[in-house]
Amino acid sequence: MLLLASVLIFFVSAIFAMLGMGGGMLHLPILLWLGYPLKTVAQPVGILLNGLTTLVALITYARNRLVDWRGSWPMALAALILAPIGSMIAHLIDDRVLIFLLVLMIFFAAIRTLTSAKKAEPKEFTPTLKHRVLGVTVAGFAAFLGAMLGLGGGTLISPLLMWMGYPTKRAVATSAFIVTISSASGFVGRIGHLEASWLLVVVLSLAVILAAWLGSSLMATKAKPHWVKYAYSILLFGVGVKLLIPLL
């Protein structure tokens, strides 16, 4: 089971690192499908892996000067504050409700990314005050909801930055920074409920670190933005349907 989890999580982490996301949206379903408990293993381990993926990706993107540090700090601060609150509230909500909310986020991200894939790629983008206020609001909400579900919030943040007008690679890199902060903050709120074995945590952590390095390196140097968006959308639709069927 551990070997299968490592292989699957390695694969999805490489893809999500290319999108500035941690992969928690798929880490969590994978751990659930393999029989791990939702609130004591799948969610805390998922958000830890999420943060590790974006942290490694962030290092690569920073080296390639793709991160909008100045524009992302207010969003990262909002995520830092609200993520632990979402983690604490999660333990008061029924498991089926959490999974249903996860499915909704998956479908939203898939549709949002698919529609943006057809748009022309912008060359430059300078955020206005309106963009910054919207970014802080959505980043805070995404971090809160993401931490509640065992994610990092990249599901909403990365599509938001693309919608605001960021070029794909810059949006991906900037999202990686915000999601790293959100995931770290959210994990702190869950660490007291973690009941996973250290072997599981260490092996999966090593898998996502390697995958994130490979995925972010490809995105920074070779990947075509629209190809990544199409592949990501198709993958998300499949996962969403898979999670929704048992609920119905």
Automatic annotation (TrEMBL):
Name any GO cellular component annotation.
Answer: plasma membrane
- Please report which protein family the annotation says this sequence is part of: Belongs to the 4-toluene sulfonate uptake permease (TSUP) (TC 2.A.102) family.
Q: Which UniProt keywords apply?
A: Cell membrane, Membrane, Transmembrane, Transmembrane helix
Give membrane topology per the record. Multi-pass membrane protein
Q: Which residues form the signal peptide?
A: none
Q: What is its main location?
A: membrane
Cited PANTHER family: MEMBRANE TRANSPORTER PROTEIN MJ0441-RELATED, MEMBRANE TRANSPORTER PROTEIN YJNA-RELATED
* UniProt name for this protein: Probable membrane transporter protein
Membrane listed as a keyword: yes
Please tell me whether the keyword Transcription regulation is annotated for this protein.
Answer: no
Q: Where are the transmembrane segments?
A: 41-61, 73-91, 97-115, 136-165, 171-189, 196-215, 227-245
Localization of this protein? Cell membrane; Membrane
